[in-house]
């Protein structure tokens, strides 16, 4: 090999090594996966008996999120679990409003409320976490929807859009900068949680294949659109580097 050509190749290789080690984009040969760090938290929304097959408000194939979430959770140092946790006779239950049926709407003090079958009543087996969830690293369980007159899809702010659950402060005090939202249901509690995370200044991702939707009157497409506008990133579990 002529000397000049050899030197050029060596020089190029060295330059490339330098650039790669500097982490510049465009030179990697495989799509970069997201690596959860100390500032990342996995939020597991409402994976409870009420929302899976056999529950009081089943989300179609809701139980299928369990193995996906279990696998993801092994890669996160910080895991938060939420539970829908209603009083008996809660304002979000159709049975609490004369003449109303589940999935109709009504006006409550804070605006329009979808009315649901009675579900996730505090302390009931229906409200318990799914028995196959395997989250030994979960550090906090946030219960929501326990004020009789106010629903709470979001893990951060109740449906009056004023009352915090405390999760935002907890995550900030813990130095969490980005959240990865999973669970049930994509178009209600997952979406509201992810969008409120953005409002509170967190980077927010929804891991789509770790969620399942209710999809009531086009609510799933609407939720993805609203999440996109809010800056929530839509990813798959395969985008996360496994532990
Ligand atoms: Zn509920």
Please summarize what this structure is.
The chain has five helices and eight strands. The chain is of the alpha/beta class and 243 residues long.
Write up what this structure looks like.
The protein has 243 residues and is α/β, with parallel strands linked by helices. The protein contains 5 helices and 8 strands. It has helices at residues 3-21, 65-73, 167-173, 186-199, 219-230; strands spanning 40-45, 79-84, 105-108, 111-114, 138-144, 178-184, 203-212, 233-235. The strands form 2 sheets. The chain has a 6-stranded parallel sheet with strand order 5-2-1-6-7-8. A two-stranded antiparallel ribbon has the order 3-4. Strand 1, helix 2 and strand 2 (79-84) form a beta-alpha-beta unit. Residues 84, 86, 92, 119-120, 145 line the site of zinc ion.
Topology:
Blueprint: H1 3-21, E1 40-45, H2 65-73, E2 79-84, E3 105-108, E4 111-114, E5 138-144, H3 167-173, E6 178-184, H4 186-199, E7 203-212, H5 219-230, E8 233-235
Parallel strand pairs: 1-2, 1-6, 2-5, 6-7, 7-8
Antiparallel strand pairs: 3-4
The chain binds zinc ion (ZN).
Zinc ion (ZN) is lined by residues 84, 86, 92, 119-120, 145.
